[in-house]
Amino acid sequence: MALLVSWRPSASNISSFPFMVKTCPKTAKMGYFSNNISCSAISSVATMAGQRKLPILLFDVMDTIVRDPFYHDIPAFFRMPMKELLECKHPTAWIEFEKGLISEDELAMKFFKDGRSFDLEGLKNCLRSACSYIEGVEGLLNSLKENGYEIHAFTNFPIWYQMIEDKLKLSDYLSWTFRSCVFGKRKPDPEFYLEVVKHLNVEASNCVFIDDRMRNVEAAVEIGLKGLQFKNADLLRTDLCLLGVDVSTNENQDLADVRHKVIC
């Protein structure tokens, strides 16, 4: 059974996905734990060829890992409010660009419905300068990497993803495997999710998908993936912990080991 988490999961909502929690207080509920008790979740390590560690983690990028400049910086660049920008822009041009169906030059020609010209390089520079890690997410990605998880980007984004990579070096933590501009599909298209599962060569239930948009999470769950809606890094740590994903750092683990020795 797939697990859908729209906010924070309670223990009763956990599916048969195996997990173990160390020293979790009985009072823990709704996905948070008291500050004075260390709670470290250790995932069940499912072995495949090459000792592949499960679950595989699939991260949306914009507004899940990276702050999306579209809602504030891009309207400011065009010197118009968001409502006016939405009314003026072509209804499908950006989607076509994300799917790799049109080139950068073609985007420039049809970005606005009336065909007006604009500073394309300026727009790119705006996007590049505005992108930054969402608070706490880089540390979480580093913890997941240190604990041996396979992490992939699963994103609706055009060839401009390279600008984000050049600035933030997401590839230090994950692979830019699943990009709409390469697959020609966008979330929440079920075919895109099926392509992902096929490419990974695992059962859908062995994947955890994280996205800030509930519609995309629901589409993942319908395919059989486990889904988490991103709110912030702290809540995501808790959600992953409850799924049995080890989000501890070496420092946290050392502290837990010391406390265990004292108790025992």
TrEMBL record:
GO MF annotations in UniProt: FMN hydrolase activity
Record InterPro entries: HAD-like_sf (IPR036412), HAD-SF_hydro_IA (IPR006439), HAD_sf (IPR023214)
Signal peptide, first to last residue: none
GO cellular component annotations of the record: chloroplast
This protein's UniProt keywords: Hydrolase
Protein name, per record: Flavin mononucleotide hydrolase 1, chloroplatic
Annotated source species: Nicotiana tabacum
